[in-house]
Amino acid sequence: MSSPDETPYSLLPQVAQAWNFPLFEAIVGRRSRRFGFGMELSHGPFTYKSDKDPIPLDEAETAMLVAAATGVTGAILCEGEFQGGMVKSVGRPHPSAVGSHRTELFFTNDDGVFLFRGSQQQMTKMKEYESVEDRNKILDFYRKYTVKLSDKRLDLPRQTPGLFHHNLWVTNKPGTTLFMPVTDISKDLIRLMINMCDPKGGRYISGGGYYIVDERKGMRAAGCEKWAQKGLLDKNKPLPLGALEKIIVSWLCAEGAMMGTLMQLAMAATGLGGWMHGGFTPLVVMGGTPICRGLGFKFVQGKDEPLPNPVGLDGYFEGYCPPYFKTMGDAVEAAVKDMGESLDEWERRGMVLPHTITNKEFEKGVPGVSEDGVNCVKDICNYIYETYGKFPAFNDTMHLLYFIQAHHLDLEFYDKNFKKGAYLDTHRDHFATWHKGSNVKSRSSGK
Question: How far apart are CA 50 and CA 447, in angstroms?
Fold first, then answer.
């Protein structure tokens, strides 16, 4: 993990201090703290120009924020009547509907644009962090699963519609690290359809599956009429496409908000400034407009849609839909593949399972899928793509709803403009704790 002359991450005193920071002190001390080194407020009641040069977060600071948002925590317990399928996933700090974790964390700083590929991490034991030495994994995982996408800071225009006007002065400035959690809803929309339509795999239904209808087309069957006639679906249980998509959007897009909240708590523990906001235009940030390459996502144009649909980043984070799959049938096969695999297979791949009973006993509670259920969902997904030229029908494939920015605070600004209590002791002591020997000087006075 470290070179011979490098202190192991787990033994750094600042890591121990942050690790042991009181939880409720972080909760009640959480604030949006926006004013960092090198920033300027030229309008309003708090006009001020920082006389400090911007200082970027170092690797140790960045790794801790990433770990707080989307690190590995160990095995998911999956206790319950029909929760067994979720055991085929990795525990993380942020909760995720049915263990999906279809949110990847992009970030940018003075060195470029990066992607932390959290979905590639494997747990190594039931509880990932047990000993002090285990904390080395924070940096190990960060180094192993972070990929560099660009040598330059994110190409985000300092104007609307890239950034909302009230955030132009502070967002993505030199010295800052800007985190961007992007969520794919396509894979788990497919899996939700299995749960809603397949009586074998369905944990949300009894009797026949839900009859999926298209409210934009007069409530006609969304490609599943023959499955109602065969008795797989129940026409007395209609479920509009829009309502179905709303379920998965509300479930999965909460991941980014949870990640942001955890990062803010970690900022309190480490003494970093920053905040979370949605004051930007997602399509511009992802790269769907001529004015900005952004994160470089691929876009497709749906039928009769005014705006393009982001479907993924080639080779890194790809939606379960064309052009990454030849057909929606292929996408469905890929999305449900692990739902039918045995836990013995997963253990052979290195997954850690939490239960003490045998896998055979545990799998009695895992719903699985039926061939008819999968074929029914293929027909629904093909209907959506053929009708609307995209998948999902009414929502984007990829969603970016939140920015989380971290930076070093200029405490002189807060001392001048706010009462005592505007920042925590961790902020006051941050440079003494995290950057011993650093020479933070005023540009003008050398303070």
Answer: 12
Beta strand pairing status for 103-109 and 298-300? Answer: unpaired
Signed CA dihedral, 208, 214, 215, 217: sign only: negative
| pLDDT tens string 337-370 | 877 778 888 788 888 888 899 988 888 777 778 9
Give 200-235 pLDDT, tens digit per residue.
766 556 778 999 999 999 999 999 999 999 999 999
Task: Report helix, strand or coil for 11.
Answer: helix
* DSSP 8-state assignment for residue 138: H
Is the sign of the CA dihedral 57, 284, 260, 137 positive or negative? negative
C-alpha span between 188 and 192 (Å, rounded): 6
Has this prediction a pTM greater than 0.85?
Answer: yes
Q: What is the CA 78 to chain-centroid distance, rounded?
A: 21
- Interhelix angle 59-70/254-270, rounded to 10 degrees, is 140
Q: Which CATH superfamily is domain 9-184+252-292+401-434 in?
A: NADH Oxidase (3.40.109.10)
C-alpha distances in Å from residue 210, one per residue of 119, 239, 316, 336: 31, 6, 34, 18
Q: Counting Cβ atoms within 10 Å, is residue 351 exposed (0-12), middle (13-18) or buried (19+)? A: middle
Q: Is the dihedral of CA 235, 240, 241, 243 positive or negative?
A: negative
- Given strand 309-313, what is the order of strands in its sheet? 298-300, 309-313, 317-318
Note the pLDDT of residue 322: 98
Give me the torsion for CA of 24, 25, 28, 34, rounded to 10°: -130
**Mean pLDDT, all residues of the chain:** 91
8 Å CB contact between 135 and 10: yes
pLDDT 10s digits, 278-298: 999 999 999 977 778 899 999
Strands 309-313 and 233-240 come out as unpaired
Listed in order, the ranges of the chain carrying CATH 3.40.109.10 are: 9-184+252-292+401-434
Instruction: Supply the DSSP string of 349-379, one letter for each residue.
Output: TTPPP--SS-HHHHHTT-----HHHHHHHHH
190: CB partners within 8 A, 6+ apart: 320, 331, 332, 335, 336, 377, 381
310's tokens: 């982001």
Give me the pLDDT at residue 208, please.
87
Sign of the CA dihedral running 366, 372, 376, 377:
positive
